[in-house]
Design brief:
The complex is a heterodimer of chains A (109) and B (113). Chain A has 109 residues and is mostly beta strands. Chain A contains no helices and eleven strands. Chain B has no helices and eleven strands. Classes of the chains: A mainly beta (109), B mainly beta (113).
Chain lengths: 109, 113
């Protein structure tokens, strides 16, 4: 079983749309959770950490459900510049990080 | 903002040769990582390094691979006797503490011919 699973997409949405990505993790001992974005042939860049109570950063909202071992990312009012691959990253005890395969988003004019 | 820097940006090597990929982590960070990403595939963990020793490594990180922090600033990944399937993007990352979000370098694209 994979440590982190994501729907690979692709998601093609019009500008201004709201889109949600989901991620599940298998290890109940996982401690920290993050969303990264990765542009084509570039390095992953931190988008936001995910906190137990849920957190928001502008148009982006992240949620964590420990009971269901599930993380989500909601993007409101999508911009063309949001087009990228979104990576779910989970830190298990110690300093090993597991990456999901990524979800591809294309925002269409 | 401090950055993780990696050199070279692109390395082309004949199969069977040794390569060394270099990284300069952010200066006050204590945890260092190497990842690889084969084109079109997911980012895969290779190894983490703390206090001058390997703390975690994946199944990918076999005897062909080694890491070193020779001088307190550089963090290197050595791949001995490279294979075609080693062709990938290699990312270095660092964090201040073990569970904090990682900062990634731009990556080194390794092409094995």
């Amino acid at each position: 079983r994979k440590e982190v699973e994501q729907d690979p997409g692709p998601f093609n949405v019009p500008e201004g749309a709201t889109v949600a990505f989901n991620c599940t993790y298998s290890n109940s001992a996982s401690q920290s959770f993050f969303w990264y974005r990765q542009d084509c042939r570039k390095e992953p860049k931190l988008l936001m950490s995910v906190y137990s109570s849920g957190n928001e950063d502008g148009r982006f909202t992240a949620q964590l459900n420990r009971a269901s071992q599930y993380i989500s990312l909601l993007i409101r009012d999508s911009k063309l510049s949001d087009s990228a691959t979104y990576l779910c990253v989970v830190n298990v005890a110690g300093n090993q990080f597991y990456f999901g395969t990524g979800t591809s988003l294309t925002v269409i004019p | 903002e401090p950055e993780v820097t990696q050199t070279p940006s692109h390395q082309v090597t004949q199969m069977g040769q040794e390569v060394i990929l270099r990284c300069v982590p952010i200066s006050n960070h204590l945890y260092f990582y190497w990842y690889r990403q084969i084109l079109g595939q997911k980012v895969e963990f290779l190894v983490s390094f703390y206090n001058n020793e390997i703390s975690e490594k994946s199944e990918i990180f076999d005897d062909q691979f080694s890491v070193e922090r020779p001088d307190g600033s550089n963090f290197t990944l050595k791949i001995r006797s490279t294979k075609l399937e080693d062709s990938a993007m290699y990312f270095c990352a660092s964090t201040a503490t073990g569970a904090q979000p990682q900062h990634f370098g731009d990556g080194t694209r390794l092409s094995i011919l």
